[in-house]
Amino acid sequence: MGGQKFQYDESGGTFYYFLLSFLALVLIPTTIYAWPRKKKEDPEKLREECQCPPCIKKKAIIAASEPYKNLKTFCTKLLLVLGWVFLAYLAYRVSQFDYEMVNFDPFEILGIPPDSSQADIKKAYRKLSVVLHPDKETGDEKAFMKLTKAYQALTDDEARKNWEKYGNPDGPGAMSFGIALPSWIVEKENSVWVLGLYALVFMVALPIAVGTWWYRSIRFSGDKVLLDTAQMYFFFFHKTPNMALKRVIMILAASLEFDKRHNSQVVERLSDNDEVPALIRHLPNLNEKCKEQPLCRMYSIKARAIIHAHLSRIMLNPDTLDKDRQFIVKKCPYLIQEMISCVHHLVVLAYARRISRLPNIETIENCMKLSPMIIQGLWEFKNPLLQLPYLTEDHVHFIMKKKHIKNLQQFAQLKPEECRQLLRNFSDFEYENIMKVLGKMPLIDFSIRCEVIDDENTNVVTAGAIVTVTVTLVRKNMKDLFGDTTRPAKQEITENDEQPDVNGEQNEEQQTVKKTNTWAKPNKKQHKGKGGKKPGPVKPKQHAPSNVSKSPAPGDSKKSDNGPVQEKPTKAATATESDIDSDESDNEDKDDLGASSDENEKKSSVEDDDDVEWERLQQKLNKREKLEGKSRISHSVHSPYFPEDKQEYWWTYICDRKSRTLLTAPYHITNLVDREEVQLKFTAPRWPGVYTLTVCLRSDSYIGMDQQQELKLDVQKAPEITTDHPQWDISESESEHNDQQENESEFATDTSEDEE
């Protein structure tokens, strides 16, 4: 590596190149994504929006929540423009750099044509040297040296060869490595300032920035909720496994996000000493005398009173308490989601026997109920029609008296003339706004499909198998129901009532159950009798599969669309007409041909099943990849009492109503635009029998949009594993008895069928 040189940039040219390239890499994408763009309001969209007074007030609140928006826009534009000006300056400086040997042409330097003679070359050199000599007034040392090199390249034989071969009269230059930094950085007189700047940036500013970020981030969970708040949720939900709705509101109001000591955004005023007690006197059942910590603290009582006032739609002082209401209500959706996560984690810990108390399903459902109450500013016992603009308690009472309408679906199904007659006290403008809001509300087609993916026979559920329930949601607008009186309206989830399908039709699984009564009755010896005696070892009865339906016609599908309700059809049902005719004509060879046709048919059916399962697996993998980048934009919610734009979200989960337990984690659906599929997985009971579960769908934005469907599992006994190892043998009575005790704590079987 002799001849190499390692040096800093003396002239600063390469440093300008470095700055130019770095600034261009940063400035171009920043301008594309960060340049403020003024959103053009679509007239069609404005026409579809609600123009009721609360919605207009909400728009004003959202606009006022960003007071420095114009200033931020101006500063952003100014910084970007200054960046582009500096980039243009760097480009100009780089273009002015003069590199001597880049395009060295001696004829051009001397100003003579390439075919000039030696006399012409000498004459031109003498003429220019008189002008450019450093001793002259018009002299230029740099230009004179360049002129001398050009003269030598044309007069000296060695220099001319070097120029023709290497483009340089001095011959090949030595390889050099340089750093794109100016040389003054390493000069002695500047070393103190350079080291000081280095220490200030990397030893003071950077550690402070990282430490501040880390200190703030470790105080919050992934959903931007304080860890102390989540710890408080765990304590109260473990203390009270069956928590009422008003108790959930008390826990929500005690969140540390509303405490000045934990959140600097909280504003405390002297006027609170007068306004908060006056507000409490107007709110019944507030339970402000509670002695529990931190439920009895002043910030908690104030937040609780404001939440109650929000749900009762009580007007507050716009300069004081109403601003606090906006601050509290904005944070409630994140806190409620954290509550649901805490309850689910407690359920998991209870199943793992880490804690003794198992939270009931009512507790987590009360948390879910609170979300649409906060978004709509309405108590759960109020009529869902109050979510529509302009409607008051008196209007709803009049509508109930005339048509006995209890939900939004029934109201949307009224004939236009009947609907206008009920709302005759409203003007045409108000009536139009009511119907616009109603028509944009969600109408969800809720369907389920149950299967055992990892098993050979996906339609049969065995004890301890992993059951996958695929929930399919198709969103439509409520305006599809306008005037449709033949379509049964949906009902809200209740604990004991069964929820019909959106179309008023039961799925194929439920129809099969009602017509053929194919569900197997579990052995009564599995349960304890009235005398309380423990059951002895029970041997399962050998009976025909109870989940086999009537033989379908040739060409029907082999699998049920709604889960493991039916076995595979018999061979007679799956045989084609040609096979039957051939069997009848060839009576002599009936046994041989029948056996061969059955074997071929089995092979073809197995291959078809494998292809179908492979396609399903690929679809599920693709869905899983899509869900990794899940969007949080679906449809805007009409929520005039919520001070921010809210998107429609949903929860879906599986529970057992009889044992009051949660079987799957509540899946939060945040991207339901038109259609969405969700997979819920749980472990089947360890004891054979018929189990009735419930698949629930809940809205976090609207009251009265909840749905549920029953899911019946006919759990078959798992096949026994034969082994020759005596040390693995377990007595049958002991294993069945242990499985029975574990299973009774997990699920409750269908007792109504047992009694029959």
UniProtKB/TrEMBL annotation:
Residues 509-520 have a biased composition (Polar residues). PROSITE patterns: DNAJ_2. Keywords: Chaperone, Endoplasmic reticulum, Membrane, Protein transport, Transmembrane, Transmembrane helix, Transport. CDD domains: DnaJ (cd06257). Residues 522-533 have a biased composition (Basic residues). SUPFAM superfamilies: Chaperone J-domain, E set domains, Sec63 N-terminal domain-like. The chain crosses the membrane at residues 15-35, 74-92, 192-215. It comes from the Eukaryota. It is a multi-pass membrane protein. GO terms for cellular component: Sec62/Sec63 complex. The keyword Nucleotide-binding does not apply. One of its GO terms (molecular function) is protein transmembrane transporter activity. Residues 485-613, 716-756 are annotated as: Disordered. GO terms for biological process: post-translational protein targeting to endoplasmic reticulum membrane; SRP-dependent cotranslational protein targeting to membrane. Its main location: endoplasmic reticulum. Residues 578-591, 741-756 have a biased composition (Acidic residues). Residues 716-727 have a biased composition (Basic and acidic residues). Residues 105-167 form the J domain. This is J domain-containing protein.
